[in-house]
Amino acid sequence: MRRSPKPVIVAMAVAAAAATIAACSSSSGTSAGSGSSASSSAGGRVTLSWWNNATADPLKGIWVSAITAFHTAHPSVTIQNVPHQNEFFKTNMPIALKSNNPPDIYQQWGGGAEATQVQSGKLADLTQYVSGWIGTLGKAAAGWQVSGKQYGVPYDQHVVGFWYRKDLFAKAGITTPPTTIPQLESVNAKLRAHGITPIGLGGQAQWPDAFWWEYFAVRECSTSVIQQGMSSSSLSAPCYSKATKDLTAFLATNPFESGFNAVAAQSSPTSSAGMLANGKVAMELQGDWEPGEAKGDTTDKNIDSKLGWFAFPAVPGGQGDPSSVLGGGDGWSCTTGAAEPACAQFLQYIDSTEVQKQLVTQASIGLPANPAAESAITSPAVKAAAQAHDTAAYVAVYFDQALPTDPGLALDAAIANFFAGKGSNSAIINSVSSSSGH
Amino acid sequence: MARAESTQDRGAVRLAAGPEIISGPAAAGAPPKQRSARRKRIELTILLGPPLILFIGFVFVPMIFAIWYSLYNWNGYGPLSDFIGLQNYQGVVTGSVFHQALLHNIIIAVLSVVIQLPISIGLALLLNRRMRGQAAMRLAVFTPYVLSQATSAVMWSMLLSHGGPVDSLLKSAGLAALIHFWLASTSLVLYTLFFVVTWQFIGFGIVLLLAGLQGIPPELREAAAIDGASSWQITRRIMLPLLGPTIRIWIFLAVIGSLQLFDIVWIMTLGGPANASQTMLTYLYFNGAERTQFGYGATVSVVLFIISFVFALAYQRYALRRDTAGAVTRAVG
């Protein structure tokens, strides 16, 4: 799951964090550990603290059993499971990485945010430890490199595309999903004619808005322009302004539910994912976590079979390859210390076909990092998404993750303002080049 | 004047009387004055020490750190090396989004005093009367305050979602014309949030004012009634003036609360859409913590601190002086 802006849970994060800290300090009497996050090695025995965002089953259960299995195979290594709420990592990693005992393994989304964290000097360069097997992950691993060095390793992949209701499309007489933007617009018109809101958008959280502008940019700009734009934090190439123009024209067709500015993306029946799950909208541009989210927001047991997937349509005249996708993933980083080899070994185990298949079948994580586990995907919609990801000419990491954190979030905010009718193309373009936008 | 002051008077008397009583048996040893002074010092150390340590450790020291960080361009990861002087302050003071956020805080503060206060006083006067179900009604107005802000924020964002329960209710009451984009409209969202804040905190104001009303001796009312004063005259000429100290404290708490508004706003709107509900704290959190510009975030916190502090001092000096004068001067002097 990319982000979970679950309001209650977010607000409870502090409490949960406090509870975790309390729990850790009370259990630190065991082994040589002196706290929640101190790796300790005594007589070859190693204890690694592992901060992850799996606060609930099924993911939590999978991690716990992975820890046990790994310990059985490597009796000298003990992994200490320390789950934190997702948002915790955004605000607390700077503090943790400044401290003298950061976690040994922690949640890492790669890209520019990882590059920012590398500045702390606490992230372990895993290149030499993972060189033997990282190739099996294919192009996925590149998103966790900083200047060619592997500072992180993914455990799953994400791809953004359209999740649509096959039943609502059928009701409006739409037989094939659109492959170009003009086709998408006529699909929207047909749906509207049948009283169906075409597309759901969770604009409150800003990043779902950003997906739209970013996808238009991925279609308008060539791969090299995107790569250069992300590495230099500059959106001055003319194709980015074209993306804004495309978006303006598309917004004018009124494709979204009314009041989308205040709609949450996930975690309630009134969120955009919930609207799709409950048939209030016919489609949504979202990541592969959508089926899992939808399931939680409806009582409809058959929601999985009602969902289909299609790629972001081609933009006529665009320089980008129409097969390119927007995506990202979740992964891990290890911190510097004596335990780096053991840490890398554990990450290798998580990316083994065995654990990866569990993630697919039990935790519906979408796309595994290890392509060998893709055979375990059963949902036709997720399979279609996975295939688009694997055959993509280029996987562009969501811009807010590809860029360093500050310009990345400034870009999200500028795009969200644009959606709210208070922005401009120049505000979007300039948001990343200066720390303005304050 | 009312209960607040009489309590202070009693407190002052006890403080003044304390040393005299103690000095009695101690007269045989050291000179009584010296002995009592030492004892007073020990008392003060024991009583003030722990809170002072906490205050220094958790308020004063972090404040110094915030001021220090605010002079750097710092993303929280590397060392504090990029000293930029007052550049962050310039960014905050000239930033248009910060201006918006500050304006929103001021609007909420003004609305609190203009709208919440009269409602609170009215309801408190009503609930102060003897009537059936008084306890149940007091409980009802106080309940929202006991709820966690996160809970009420989630609840209200669902209720106020477009086409949600509130809209349905208006529709079925024949008031469909009143349906608006409560949270999606940039011109309305701040007032929607003010409504939720009012709903949440009005119970606190009422309880505070009720306590003030309880402190007004019933004899005053009875005497006025015997003298032929009407119910309105009693309220206007006796109850409200005697409620003055409580009202002034309430205003103080409401304004400081408005300046530090965060939880409900962050959960319901994240400061959006398009900054239309940004407050100084959501602005601080977004720019400081989320965008990992910790130096800049620290600057916002310092500015917010200065604004709150100046208000607090000015309010103490000019509005609360009458209420605290007796207690403070007598206890210290």
Summarize the structure.
With 438 residues, chain A is an alpha/beta fold. Chain A is 44% helix and 16% strand. The two termini of chain A are 29 Å apart.
Structural account:
The complex is a heterodimer of chains A (438) and B (333). Helix content of chain A is 44%, strand content 16%. Chain A is α/β, with parallel strands linked by helices and 438 residues long. In chain A, strands 1, 2, 3, 4, 7, 8, 9, 10, 11, 12 and 13 form an eleven-stranded mixed β-sheet that branches. A two-stranded antiparallel ribbon of chain A has the order 5-6. Chain B is mainly α and 333 residues long. Chain B has 15 helices and no strands. Chain B has helices at 2-26, 32-69, 87-94, 96-127, 134-146, 149-159, 165-172, 189-214, 218-226, 231-242, 244-259, 263-269, 280-290, 294-318, 321-332. Chain B is flat and about 75 Å long. At the A-B interface, helix 1, helix 3 and helix 18 of A face helix 6, helix 12 and helix 13 of B.
